[in-house]
Specification:
Blueprint: H1 8-18, H2 21-26, H3 36-64, E1 67-69, E2 72-74, H4 79-88, H5 107-120, H6 122-129, H7 131-141, H8 144-156, E3 160-164, E4 180-183, E5 189-199, E6 209-215, E7 228-233, E8 248-253, E9 264-277, H9 283-319, H10 344-376, H11 380-416, H12 418-421, H13 427-434, H14 444-456, H15 462-476, H16 484-510, H17 514-544, H18 550-567, H19 570-587, H20 594-598
Parallel strand pairs: 3-6
Antiparallel strand pairs: 1-2, 4-5, 5-9, 6-7, 7-9, 8-9
């Protein structure tokens, strides 16, 4: 039977054993009262909600989907009730400012919560998934009046929020958007335009929806430097029109490959009233707060999906009897066939899933601790350093972990065989649902370009160099002889990444197209560099604590060994591609494939 078990012990291993998260957080005045018991209590309650309330609705949402009736979206049975329970338990307020009704708890706990929400019901999770990003955007950039009107409702979850960027002619290229904003005498604006692919653009879960909309003022310069951000409510919250509907409507729902329980709306704004958030023509800076929050959430979703896929494919592999294994225990010598978990090919698929899930969890929780530090560390220099490191890691988390979320679900389908391809077992839904995460919030190709061009080459590798210095310092201090081979491999990788970064940067001065050819390879190289460092830390931790739970900590060490033996060598191929492109750029130039692609 398809199921989900909150991975509480694995979560505790990362937060408590590896990172001593409670002790780290206690250094910040706002979290002085945080301890491991409190964190564990929150995590256990989150796991209970996700597994008992959300998980049973996942298949329901997929089968029923959403429907549009007279301009009103109807969500699947049980979705609204689950959301109201979510709000009653205070989950939307978890990591929000107490001034606006928040609980003031760390982002780290919010990350754990959203891993489990995504693991159990990705489509439903997309409703509250944008709340914290909307909260952060308004909290940082809006006027006090807007904050007082909207933040308490967003923090409590009483109102949901959307992010209205994409238009029919403009996807990720926001500089092309045409939605217009005209000022009114009272300081508000009239917003007119069409937005597409708006998750939760309309729904029957909350009475109001807070739309954050990008639009152009009449005097706006062309391109992305001429975009402003507006808050546009579905229902007017106050004033003479309080309780009346704004001039906006959902005109259509997309019929999608997956996430059927999440309404993907086309929204028409027809002189809808909105209010400016931040400065005129500086809307992207404000919206990027929300977008970066969403990118981290999407990456965490990849980890959650991969966790559920792994749990169920492992259970299936232990139950499914098929073919005789090469190495059979004496107790099975007279059996006609063995569980497929005994076959090396299936073990490889399962261990690959496990290594990516557990490595991804380390990376996302490490980044969540960075986010807490970037906001709350008492030293401004430390806050700045953490913020810069988080900015470097964000595109990696978003792209690499969603790639691996899809790969993990695909491996699970492979383990199930023909039974995985049919709907009854449940795993094929996870593969369909997670595929959108590789596209959301800027495709993974765009994330790779952002990482290489804006986060690495733009500062001549300074931020990346700082991270590699931290990794190298950790490696130099490693005294575990059992990890010497892995340490050497990571040392070689950091040296390779330093070298390639410098050479790509130099070569790009003469060949500007080069970074765009190798961005994806450079992203995965950087991702492996960080993950290999974290797996070393995990293995060291497991060795130190081994006697407390030998079977559990042995499994951690064996998974680390699998990563270094079977997965990390991917970096040799990645580096080879970059080397080849560098050589071609120097000798004959990089090929433009347009002509070949147009040949019929």
């Amino acid at each position: 039977m398809f199921a989900y078990r909150p991975p509480l012990k694995d979560i505790q291993f990362v937060l408590a054993d590896m990172f001593q998260a409670a002790s780290v957080l206690q250094q910040y005045p706002e979290f002085a009262e945080i301890d491991q018991d409190l964190m564990q209590q929150v995590i256990e309650e989150a796991g209970r909600y996700a597994s008992e309330i959300l998980f049973p609705l996942n298949a329901v949402g997929d089968a029923e989907g959403c429907r549009l009736e007279n301009g009103q979206v109807k969500t699947p049975a049980g979705f609204a009730s689950a959301y109201h329970q979510f709000c009653e338990a205070g989950w939307p307020a978890l990591a929000c400012d107490p001034e606006y009704g928040g609980q003031g708890l760390p982002h780290t706990l919010n990350s754990v919560l959203y891993e489990m929400l995504n693991a159990t019901n990705l489509a439903w999770t997309m409703f509250p998934g944008l709340l914290h990003g909307a909260y952060s955007c308004i909290h940082r950039y809006a006027t006090e009046d807007i904050k007082k009107t909207y933040l308490p409702k967003i923090v409590s979850g009483e109102w949901l929020a959307t992010m209205c960027l994409t238009e029919p002619h403009a996807g990720s290229d926001l500089g092309l958007l045409r939605t217009k904003a005209i000022s009114n005498d009272d300081g508000s604006y009239r917003i007119t335009g069409t937005k597409i692919f708006i998750s939760g653009g309309d729904q029957d879960i909350t009475e109001n929806i807070v739309h954050l909309v990008l639009a152009r003022l009449p005097d706006a310069p062309a391109g992305s430097k001429g975009i402003s951000l507006f808050v546009v409510p579905k229902i007017f919250p106050e004033g003479e029109r309080a309780g009346q509907r704004n001039s906006l409507i959902c005109t259509g729902l997309e019929h999608k490959m997956g996430i059927h329980g999440s309404p993907t709306c086309t929204m028409q704004f027809d002189d809808a009233t909105g209010w400016l958030v931040g400065e005129p023509h500086r809307g992207l800076a404000a919206m990027f707060v929300m977008m970066n929050s969403a990118r981290l959430q999407v990456g965490i979703g990849g980890v959650g999906i991969a966790e559920t896929a792994y749990q169920n494919s492992l259970a299936y592999a232990n139950e499914r009897i098929q073919s005789r294994a090469v190495n059979r225990p004496e107790s099975r010598k007279n059996e006609p066939a063995d569980p497929i978990v005994m076959h090396p090919a299936m073990q490889r698929l399962l261990m690959s899933q496990r290594a990516w899930v557990e490595g991804g969890r380390m990376l996302t929780y490490y980044s969540a601790l960075l986010l807490d530090g970037a906001e709350h560390h008492p030293d401004p220099a430390q806050r700045k350093e953490m913020d810069e490191q988080l900015a470097l890691l964000t595109p990696i988390i978003k792209a690499v972990m969603t790639d691996q979320g899809f790969a993990g679900a695909s491996n699970a389908v492979q383990i199930y065989g023909g039974h995985g391809y049919v709907c009854e077992t449940g795993i094929e839904q996870y593969m369909r649902d997670v595929r959108i995460t590789m596209i959301y919030e800027g495709t993974n190709e765009i994330q790779a370009i952002d990482l290489l061009m804006r986060k690495i080459l733009a500062d001549k590798g300074h931020r990346l160099g700082q991270l590699l210095d931290t990794i190298d310092a950790t490696l130099a201090a490693n005294a575990d002889k059992d990890l010497s081979v892995a340490v050497t491999a990571v040392q070689k990788l950091t040296a390779t990444l330093r070298d390639l970064t410098e050479r790509v940067g130099q070569a790009s001065l003469e060949h500007p197209v080069l970074p765009y050819h190798v961005a994806s390879e450079m992203m995965r190289l950087t991702g492996h560099c960080i993950l290999s460092w974290l797996w070393l830390k995990a293995s060291q931790t497991a060795t130190t604590l081994h006697d407390n739970d030998p079977a559990f900590y042995d499994a951690k060490r064996h998974t680390a060994d699998y990563y270094f033996t079977y997965i990390l060598p991917e970096t040799l191929q990645l580096a080879g591609v970059v080397e080849t492109c560098l050589a071609r750029a120097k000798t004959q130039g990089l090929q433009d494939f347009r002509g070949d692609l147009n040949v019929q």
